[in-house]
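Model: You mentioned two targets. I'll fold them one after the other.
Researcher: Yes, keep them separate.
Model: Target one:
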Amino acid sequence: MATTKRTRFSRRLPDHVTDELVNVLGSTDKLFPFNELFEDVYERLKERNAVSGGEEMLRLRAYEKLQNLVTRGLAEKDGKEYRGLERIQEAHSDNLAQQEA
């Protein structure tokens, strides 16, 4: 019986998509429909020149990251709208870097 070697991929670079989701959701207490939230994040990423892979691929990545924030209890989903909770800043890469140091 052959055993498979499992390797774990660790991304060391800052996650710009999650950072911008945190910035938008943490800036106000309002509920964002996903399309409006994505447009805000996409504009911020274009300003930082951090857009790669096309808009549709970025939309999928942003949705996946947003669902991860909801699962971790850092964002709230109400129907198809999202709101950042008090601890949303914990997901920002600056905070994660401080925790690892």
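Model: Target two:
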Amino acid sequence: MRVVGGKAKGRRLAGSTSPATRPTTERVRAAIFNILAPELYEGRRVLDLYAGTGSLGIEALSRGAAWADFVERSPRQCGVIRSNLQNTGLAGQAKVHCADVARALATLGGNYRLVLLDPPYQEVDAGVAMSRIAETPGLVAPGGMVVVGHSRHLELTEKYDALRRASLRRYGDNIVEFYQQEGG
């Protein structure tokens, strides 16, 4: 697994230490960042929830994000994220929060222009995760985007509070949905 674009393009990323962690593939990461407008992340703060290996947030940093917060509950995976940040030269632009997502959402500063999540399909209902994100005041900046990956067997709603679906893409058994925060 490698970084697909930006200043760390081609750098190897360490994989998962757990069979429950399913990293977002290079193909899907490339597709996500080809769809996203660079203004959503260049020079901005991004949040990678259920971070696993950190590949989504690292991709954003490599492509010009100013800062990334990574949230992962597994201490071993937190170590993988830290190692991947060191190996890509991006550690100075990030913080790894080794905590449960619900707990972390209550303490993070918010105002993120881009929130990325690709939770483990068997353990986390992406719809519940989207509701938590939408219900966290100030987490997503007006006009910001939430990108969620999930199984094709799960159907998300059109809207979660002020987050409205802007696009849906299918990649094999995976679905990636883009939700925009109203007010921007």
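Researcher: Noted. Anything on target two?
Model: DSSP finds five helices and eight strands in the chain.
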